[in-house]
Design a protein that fits this description.
The chain is α/β, with parallel strands linked by helices. It contains seven helices and six strands; from the N terminus they run E-E-E-E-H-H-H-E-H-E-H-H-H. The chain has one domain: Ribonuclease H-like superfamily/Ribonuclease H (Nucleotidyltransferase, domain 5, 2-Layer Sandwich). Helices cover about 40% and strands about 20% of the residues. Strand 5, helix 4 and strand 6 form a beta-alpha-beta unit. One of its GO terms (molecular function) is nucleic acid binding.
Amino acid sequence: MPTDLYISTDIEADGPIPGPYSMLSFGMAVAATFDGTTFNRLEGDTFYRELQPISPDFIPEALAVSGLDRAALARTGAAPALAMAENVAWLAEMADKHQARPVFVGYPLGFDWMFTYWYQVRFTGGSPFGHSAHLDLKTLFAQKAHRPIRGVGKRSMPRHLLGDSPHTHHALDDAVEQAQLFCNVFEWDGI
């Protein structure tokens, strides 16, 4: 049985979908491995990039969430093709280091997965996660807590699952925070 390598991922974007709008930054944090029997928490390996916008369009309210400056990113952000190539190489390095296959972890999955997968495919030709190696942390919690998915939010989670890291809307900070939450929920027996 293959071993999973859980990669907690968070992105910041200036709109609701990739293509017409831009992913402005993304962060990844190695969270854990699981071989079907043994779950091992991991810390320390991270990846972060700020990107040049790919479109002139943006939604001011979406941009305000991250606090990133589009004009500055146009000058100093990484070209998306370069950033995604570096990211794919980092994921391969992590997979080799841990002798495991990467699994994307998001909360909620849809938004972060959509942008990351689209950028990886668009700028590198494919994704190390394939089209389906992803886990929605919100769904995992809902299943363990025996709650409907629409009734789940971080405010409804037991405090001991949330960890100590703040949610800052900085993609790397939030990926690290989410990695802690993922490990706590994965190991939690539920209610």
